[in-house]
Amino acid sequence: MQAQEGLSYSFYLEGVHCANCLRKLDTIQSKIPGLSSYDFDMSRKTLRVDGYNLDQNLIQSEISSLGFTAHGLVGDMDQIQQQKREDRNLLMRMGLAGFCSGNIMLLAISVYAGAIGAEARFMNWLSFFLSLPVVVYSAWPLYLASWKGLLNRQISVDLPIALAILGGYVLSLLSLFGAPINSEQIVYFDSISLLIFLLLIGRYLLRKVQQKYLRESRIKEFLKLDWAWSQDGKTQIKIDQIKPGDLILVKTGETLPADGILKSNIGILQLALLTGESEPKELRLQDPVYLGTQNLGPDILLQVTAGILDSRLQKILEKMDSAIKEKSRYVQILDRIGQIFLLTVLITAALVLIYFWPTDPQVAIYRALSFILVTCPCTIAFSVPLAFSLGLKRAAANGILLKSPQVFEKINGVEKIFFDKTGTLTDGVYDLLSFKILDQSLFFKHLEVITQGVAQSVHPVSKALFRYMQKHYSGLQTQTNSSLKIREIPTLGLEIVSENLCLLISSSRIEINGKKIAEFVMGDRIHHEANSISYWFQRKNIPMFILSGDTQEKAMQIAQLLGVQEKQVLGGLTPEAKENIITKEESAMMVGDGANDSLALARASVGVAVFGSLPSSLRSADVYLLLPGLLPIKTLFELSENVIRVVVRNLSIGVVYNIIAGTLAILGMISPLWAAVLMPLSSLSQLASSLGVLRFKKVGSTI
Amino acid sequence: MNVMYVLLPLAILLGLFFFAAFTWSVRQGDFDDLEKPAHQILVEDE
């Protein structure tokens, strides 16, 4: 074999979660030719495969045959490597801070316990040397973030912390170097190092949670399309090489790889993902068709008008991306509180300085600095992020992925909830809803012929009927019967002709020689959890709306079942129309699944993509349900309430602590001992309070 | 109390040793994937 450049592919794997899965994954070693090494990272769920002459499609299909879903990652591996480097870096800073602050605390205890004179000085100097690397190296990212914030004319959450650290450090240094030989030194090395250590732990945990659960949103792959068939259905063309004017063939069950004009006489397409229409559409010669729709009927030929980059779907996606960007400008309440907090602290410190300066400049500096130090911003810096990250974890345990902790805040303010119909409130599968036999004897006499007939048709109605027959009447001869003449007649239905028999199957009945023998209803079944969720929203007094790309009539059918009022049902909406409705709402939650929802999801205050959504919806949504069903939405609301309650509690504790500690500092009563007791005490009470999020248990029937 | 001036640096030296060990394990990538090892131990080696 000709030696080739080494190749490496990366995948994001869904479904690997236990030892057994790992064992299964190990078997790919022997199945993929050219593989030289592979590495699976379980917490990031990424698989990296290295080797020569590797075939990406083969790897992907081998992985799916093991029961996992593999999403190709493009150029993402660099990002992951970068992430790993940053992780290690943070871990080193954390370890150093832990080592140093632990030792400093031991030294400080002896001073608090009564060590004086030369011994105390020795301890303080040792503490100083130990705290130096913590303040310089471990806390470096804090200074960097604050400085970057200032350059952008923003006050970042890190700024008050950085100021407190530096303020306290300067104060301690002044005392260490400046205190007269027989007076006591006032140093805060222990409090400062511990603060930095706790902060870094909080950051590390938050980072880990986010890495683990937020990956989905970064999947770049869109629709599993790589190849398309050429006109004759024999050769394959790469999807990005399709040009306008090309003729391509789309086989039954395949997804259209381009926008175009239908060149077959008839085509049956499922448009649900693009438009939200549940019923497959029958199209004629010269009708426009779009990328992303699925061919449910016979093979069709189409003339391309726009390739993947100019397709209607791509336009929607591009618009969605810009909507996402706009959304990220949202300012977190936390940031605002942080800014108010910082301003208050700085102004108070300035007032203290001005007030005491005339009497004794040195006292003024000490009191101002110690005030900055003890008004510990650990509520903002440590406990609130911790509460949020625990909330994210709890959500994930309940099958809900949140893209960012801000979502909790926004969910709590949701005033209206908008549901997509197809695939969200309904199962999104066009299937047989009911079947009624009108003439028993005729029906059973010809059951076999009917079944064999529908088995040979690819029309969605025939397929649904075939599934129904197979399920309800066992022992049927279903093999192809060549004596039957099958013909699809546009607008009429399927005609099956045998010797003395003429069967006609339309979209709602079966006729034999002109006599109706069975009736049936085709449609999209309502999701079994839709009722309980709409009832729950009614009780919560959150008005529920239905936005559908389907006709008003179809949307109303579902709305009536759910008790949603007519004026809150909007049908026949394009993706852009959905977007417009959502944009007008201040705080709306949108729940959807298809490409036709992705614009609305991106615009909504909170966008929720249900299980099985398109990757495009995942990218634009803030929340992604990992479990099928709608009840997780209820869990999401309850959890957000819980998280916000804890955050408010933390902020209250913080305010009380800061008022007490701040007053003591201004009165000059804060000694290093007080600081060493109060600061960890505040941190610990905050920690305990944050853990309250964990009391939120798994709800309902998850998994 | 003079023994303190010997013991304290010793204690810190000991701590430094463990910190060095920690540094080494971070560089080795021991903390990169915190989940796989827990499961990997159940997978038999071929």
Chain-averaged pLDDT of chain B: 85
- Percentage of β-strand residues of chain B: under 5%
- The run of helices and strands of chain B is HH
Structural class of chain A: alpha+beta
Describe this structure in words.
The complex is a heterodimer of chains A (about 700) and B (about 45). Chain A has about 700 residues and is an alpha+beta fold. In chain A, strands 14-26-25-24-15-22-23 form a seven-stranded mixed beta sheet. A six-stranded antiparallel beta sheet of chain A has the order 6-5-7-13-8-11, with no helix packed on it. Chain A is elongated, with a radius of gyration of 33 Å. Mean pLDDT of chain A is about 80; it is low at about 215-225. Chain B has about 45 residues and is mainly α. Chain B has two helices and no strands. Chain B has helices at about 5-30, 35-40. Classes of the chains: A alpha+beta (about 700), B mainly alpha (about 45).
Write a compact overview of the structure shown.
The complex is a heterodimer of chains A (703) and B (46). In chain A, the strands form five sheets. In chain A, strands 14-26-25-24-15-22-23 form a seven-stranded mixed β-sheet. Chain A has a six-stranded antiparallel β-sheet with strand order 6-5-7-13-8-11, with no helix packed on it.
What are the main properties of this structure?
heterodimer, A: 703 residues, alpha+beta, seven-stranded mixed beta sheet, six-stranded antiparallel beta sheet, 25 helices, 26 strands, 51% helix, 19% strand, B: 46 residues, mainly alpha, elongated
Write the layout of secondary structure elements.
The complex is a heterodimer of chains A (703) and B (46).
Chain A: E1 7-14, H1 19-26, H2 28-31, E2 35-41, E3 46-51, H3 56-65, E4 69-73, H4 77-112, H5 117-138, H6 140-151, H7 158-178, H8 189-213, E5 227-230, E6 236-238, E7 247-250, E8 259-262, E9 266-270, H9 272-275, E10 281-284, E11 288-289, E12 294-295, E13 300-306, H10 312-327, H11 333-356, H12 361-374, H13 378-397, E14 400-402, H14 406-412, E15 416-420, H15 421-425, E16 426-437, H16 440-445, H17 447-455, H18 460-472, E17 485-489, E18 493-498, E19 501-505, E20 509-512, E21 515-526, H19 530-540, E22 544-547, H20 552-562, E23 569-570, H21 575-584, E24 588-592, H22 595-603, E25 606-609, H23 615-620, E26 623-625, H24 631-666, H25 672-690
Parallel strand pairs in A: 15-22, 15-24, 22-23, 24-25, 25-26
Antiparallel strand pairs in A: 1-3, 1-4, 2-3, 5-6, 5-7, 7-13, 8-11, 8-13, 9-10, 9-12, 14-26, 16-21, 17-18, 18-19, 19-20, 20-21
Chain B: H1 3-28, H2 36-40
